[in-house]
Write a structure and sequence with these properties.
single chain, alpha/beta, six-stranded parallel beta sheet, two-stranded parallel ribbon
Length: 375
């Protein structure tokens, strides 16, 4: 049972109960010196004890809810971004090799899927054990909640699964050429992913219900850039959407609040996501065309207002604006947010080099609205 005032505020907000204050969602800062400053810790403390220092930061900021556990994530960063000795695999320009197959063409991508990936997913389906998965989820979520302590509500991230575009696995060029040239293979991929996801998600629902965890989960998969969707909406509706819908159906039926993380311009996809049962959004790159005001006026499939984690922009106001710009954006997010279900946060990870005065201004604004609400 949640007994702390901040955690209770988060839970009541997720349930669209009338509350005075506006809760603060996860604040993810990547620069070590800023984490230490916000935590009231000595310089160098983050590398020595990343979990304690990071959670101290969350506590002093007044964070009410954490979905994604990112305590060690900034270890890959230095004061100016990724360091030479950090994991730079995502930036590697070398060939992608999967199970001895060099993924250098759409045909190689399809070959690997048919020879290795599809059989592996089918084996995972055959070997899936419901009760074991239920217990694994309970153990992980309980451990994370204990680590965060009673003041911060731990909610879901990365536990519910659904079909994804595998561009990080095969590379953008090969995967998206395969997507365009071999749609029947792509639909088979999404169908198999969904078959496994349904099994997993039924277990996740059972775990959350058994453990009394809040029925909330953030769904994270980038399907847009600043120009719009990575693939056409028509192709998604034909190949992907039905499999996504049936993947999340167990959570929708159980009454989960399902938020979609918004990177890029996702506007064209929002009606389809809402129709499947997504009932909230997090992030927002406003400069790319994400219409915050319009989204906050939309309704979930149930008719309820959406749950919105409104973020101060980590790509515009925070790194490039003035404190007045930051304050103005927070006021705008509050004034135009949904009547219930609103959280305040950053739009995504706050990168090294962001002016400290802007971060402090954002934190102070969020703390003000947490205490006084819209009044």
């Amino acid at each position: 049972m949640i007994t702390n005032q901040r955690a209770e505020l988060a839970l009541a907000t997720l349930q669209h109960q009338p509350v005075k204050g506006i809760p603060i969602g996860l604040i993810h800062v990547m620069e070590h010196a800023v984490i230490e400053h916000l935590a009231g810790a000595r310089p160098g403390s983050y590398r020595l004890d990343p979990y304690k220092t990071y959670i101290d930061m969350l506590e002093r900021v007044g964070v009410c809810m954490v979905d994604q556990m990112l305590m060690e994530n900034p270890l890959s960063m230095g004061d100016h971004g990724y360091e030479a000795d950090s994991d730079t695999s995502l930036a590697s320009s070398g060939p992608i090799v999967r199970d001895g197959i060099v993924i250098d063409s759409p045909e190689a991508c399809v070959d690997h899927m048919e020879r290795f990936l599809f059989p592996q997913i089918q084996a995972d389906i055959r070997n899936f054990r419901h009760e074991a998965h239920v217990q694994t989820v309970i153990n992980a979520e309980s451990r994370d909640q204990q680590l965060l302590g009673p003041n911060i509500l731990k909610t879901g991230h990365g536990v519910l699964t659904f079909p994804c575009l595998l561009y990080t696995h095969y590379g953008y060029e090969s995967f998206f050429m395969a997507y365009a040239l071999y749609p029947e293979v792509m639909e088979h991929l999404f169908s198999l992913q969904a078959d496994l996801a349904v099994l997993r998600n039924k277990a996740v629902v059972a775990a959350y219900q058994k453990a009394g965890r809040p029925l909330y989960h953030r769904l994270d998969h980038d399907m847009a850039d600043s120009r719009g969707l990575l693939v056409s909406l028509a192709s998604l509706e034909k190949l992907w959407l039905q499999h996504f819908c049936r993947s999340i159906a167990p959570a929708v039926a159980a009454g989960f609040k399902l938020l979609w993380h918004c990177d890029g311009n996702l506007m064209a996809m929002i009606p389809a996501l809402l129709a499947c049962g997504v009932n909230g959004f997090q992030g927002f790159q406003y400069e790319d065309g994400m219409d915050y005001v319009k989204i906050c006026r939309m309704k979930a499939k149930s008719g309820d207002p959406l749950v919105i984690q409104a973020g101060v922009s980590v790509t515009r106001e925070l790194p490039l604006g003035t404190p007045a710009d930051v304050k103005r954006q927070i006021d705008f997010l509050v004034a135009n947010g949904p009547p219930t279900g609103l959280f305040l946060s950053f739009s995504s990870s706050c990168a090294p080099g962001t002016p400290l005065i802007n971060i402090e201004t954002a934190v102070a604004g969020m703390q003000y609205y947490q205490q006084y609400g819209r009044s």
